[in-house]
Write a structure and sequence with these properties.
Length: 252
């Protein structure tokens, strides 16, 4: 293992860690030597993953992170068990496709509560000296849609745009505390969720989406590996940036 990319002994908090990109981040962080603190609202999936991973280096908390008052007690408990938090990956999020005329205040509040507010509340909590490890790194999984518009995705695009904008401001605010803050902007990634979406489309439409990504549809490992870089000492001079991981989608 290259020490520069090693996460040995680091404690990494991961939201949305029961499926898709979040779950792969858990697996890859463990492979790189980290301890993981996994939060997901799906209790059954967390129990399955706990059994599957069969490791003493992960602790799991079934919790809806939009219930913001429940977050600090979880973080306090985790720190008491494994030590201070060295890294944070916010992978929890929801995708919403809806024309603006159908977006109600409740729908906006729902998507922003999970995609944005919960991320920032967790970052606020773990930046406290009693929870923060030395030279910590926070990563927000956004989307290339944070920079590119798409019809029917006003709610989703605006939430991911808010996430990246807030991350840049946070990077400046937290630099003096030794905390780096970055965002990752994936394109289309092959997950159970995206597969279900593609299955609703015609073969021609699926082919068209694939052509939009010059290197093909991405894999969860592609995003998780980018997270390892940003969590590791290899990126110790990188903060306030958006790392695009989209197979060339945005270059077209």
């Amino acid at each position: 293992m290259n020490d520069l990319f090693s996460l040995s002994g680091k404690n990494i908090l991961i939201t949305g860690g029961s499926s898709g990109i979040g779950l792969q981040c858990v697996r890859t962080c463990l492979q790189m030597g980290a301890n993981t603190i996994v939060i997901s609202r799906n209790k059954d999936k967390l129990e399955q993953i706990h059994q599957e991973l069969n490791t003493q280096n992960s602790i799991f908390y079934p919790q809806d992170i939009t219930d913001h008052e429940k977050l600090e007690p979880i973080i306090k408990d985790a720190v008491s068990k494994v030590g201070k938090i060295d890294g944070f990956i916010h992978s929890a999020g929801i995708e919403m496709t809806s024309p603006l005329r159908l977006l109600t205040p409740d729908k906006f509040e729902s998507i922003f509560s999970l995609n944005v507010i919960s991320a920032f509340i967790i970052a606020k909590i773990i930046s406290k000296n009693k929870y923060k490890g030395t030279n910590a790194s926070y990563i927000f999984i956004a989307s290339i849609m944070a920079e590119l518009g798409q019809a029917g995705k006003v709610g989703y695009c605006s939430s991911k745009g808010a996430l990246t904008a807030g991350a840049r401001a946070m990077a400046l605010e937290f630099a003096s505390k030794g905390i780096r803050v970055n965002s990752i902007l994936p394109g289309m990634i092959s997950t159970d969720m995206s597969s279900k979406l593609l299955d609703t489309l015609s073969p021609e439409a699926q082919t068209e989406i694939e052509k939009m990504h010059p290197l093909g549809i991405g894999k969860v490992e592609d995003v998780a590996n980018a997270c390892i870089y940003l969590l590791s000492d290899a990126s110790k001079w990188i903060t306030g940036t958006n790392l695009i991981v989209d197979g060339g989608y945005s270059a077209k």
